[in-house]
Amino acid sequence: MSLSVDGAPAPSRGRPRSFDRTQALEQAMRVFWEKGYAGASMSDLTAAMGIASPSLYAAFGSKEGLYREAIDHYVSSFSGGFWGVMEAPTARESVEGVLRNAARVFTDGDFPSGCMVIQTAAESGEMSPELAASLCEIRASTTETLAARIRKGMAEGELSPTTDARAVAQFYAAVHKGLSLSAKGGAGREELDSVVSSAMKAWGPLTS
């Protein structure tokens, strides 16, 4: 799972800013997460961040520059649970842990529902090709990380050597995306956990 969106514009130099950059990014992240890239207006962003438009442009360069940094902030804030379960003793525990963690985070009432990165897939046409490509790489990295963990399980003798690691990873990455979409549509934690339990029943047939 990649941890940054490359190419963010460097902040312009000038007089010291009179706002907390980290807190401003937190608020911008929440607006983009809830409304999406195209749906978040500059007035939405400046109101949530508590700054004027000139300060926003001076600090982040553009809406895209702010969005890149907000995505980086999102990933750095929520990737801990993902990487933590990758250290589980077995590949099965790691994959299930990713899904259980997603069910928890995607329905946490303290934040907008779903996954901020996954929902960007529907907005590729609303952003620059460079930004869309960067976000595509982040989404794809989930599959790659799952596949690597499954291959490790194969190497350690946990899984059959004939397991198609990439196909299994793609299946569970699709479940992961589905959890985000369901949460965005109003599904609660219990419903998502039930989906995870059903998906994990396929683990044996897929890896034997």
TrEMBL record:
This is TetR/AcrR family transcriptional regulator. Residues 18-78 form the HTH tetR-type domain. The keyword Transcription applies. Residues 41-60 bind DNA. GO terms for molecular function: DNA binding. The keyword 4Fe-4S does not apply. SUPFAM superfamilies: Homeodomain-like, Tetracyclin repressor-like, C-terminal domain. Gene3D superfamilies: Homeodomain-like, Tetracycline Repressor, domain 2. Residues 1-20 are annotated as: Disordered. It comes from Brevundimonas goettingensis.
